[in-house]
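just leaving the lab so this will be short. what follows is a protein written twice so to speak, once as letters and once as structure tokens for the fold. can you read through it and tell me how you think this chain folds. thanks a lot i owe you, the record is right below.

___
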Amino acid sequence: GPFYVGGMNVISGALAYEPRIGKTFYVDPSAGQNGNSGEEEGDAFETTAYALTRCTAGRGDMIVLLGTETVTETVNFNVSRVTLVSKGVGVNPLVRGEYTALLADDTFVDGPVGTVTAATRFVGVGFVGRDTDATFFGGAALLVGGAAAGAFGVHLLACRFPKWGLDNRIGVAF
């Protein structure tokens, strides 16, 4: 069913700036499988990267992240008009991304957990990298644009870039 972010019904598209007409896909990192349909919580995909391959550019698709996903390589958000939204709020909605995030695996210490090169909306998602590079682009948990063009139209709403006691240096770089 619907759920709300800041009083807005996210699933029905009230959060969107234009009517959302695309599909909704679910990602459950602990119980999902990439062979599933992804169209219901109980039939969720395992990874956000796979869910992005099922999205169609410009359609207005939404990916609902049901829990923290540990990634071993950068997730490339390169499909336009996709929204990645966190469903879980943990115990405190003000720290929404602390409980539902893209988290770099212990061995993934060379790059951001996410790179955005297309118009994408992120709602209530955390991004936690482990890259200790001190350069502007090198140590970011989320890299928007970077060397690639096409990141115009990226929206971050209630997202978090926590350190969680790691040596990561930069949350987001534009």
Q: What stands out?
A: The two ends are 34 Å apart (CA to CA). The chain has a mean pLDDT of 80. The first strand starts at residue 4 and ends at 5. Residues 48-54 form the longest helix (7 residues).
